[in-house]
Automatic annotation (TrEMBL):
This is Cob(I)alamin adenosyltransferase. The keyword S-adenosyl-L-methionine does not apply. It holds the Pfam family CobA_CobO_BtuR. It comes from Mycolicibacterium smegmatis (strain ATCC 700084 / mc(2)155) (Mycobacterium smegmatis). NCBIfam families: cobA, PRK05986.1. One of its GO terms (molecular function) is ATP binding.
Amino acid sequence: MVPDDGLTTRARRNAPVLAVHTGPGKGKSTAAFGMALRAWNQGFRVAVFQFVKSAKWKVGEEAVFRELGRLHDEHGAGGPVEWHKMGSGWSWTRKHGSDDDHAAAAADGWAEIKRRLAAEQHDFYVLDEFTYPLKWGWVDVDDVVSTLTERPGRQHVVITGRDAPQALIDAADLVTEMTKIKHPMDVGRKGQKGIEW
């Protein structure tokens, strides 16, 4: 089906995408990082902002993307990469500080992303586990939706996390819900290297 939107095929192919990966199943961040790999391969400027992963946690994808960023810097392959962990070790477990501290860190992180979007600093953004600050009221949903729907240029944004607000789902171009059917942790197995991190 060809939409009657007045756009050319090329214009539709170059339209910026707002994607949301939500739901209770495993794989939301993994899918977003897979998209980021494709973006890096196309030479896009990639930026990852992790909102609820502790700054102390070793994330496998972070190590890979840092190497890809180095590969770009030294040999011109792919695109440049930035990886940011919001705050100083705060996470959904609510450790390391008060709720006010967590809320302020999330608000600061969102303010920085807004600044970068306005400046068209990156081509592809992963806002990992960003639905949680929205759910907890630390970042205003309406501000996020209006900023993302009005972002300039061809900046792609992927947001991950459970319980995505309906306003964000409505604004998105691509929404995937990960539904858990079965998980090894349901029977007491622990997270494993190469699977969870």
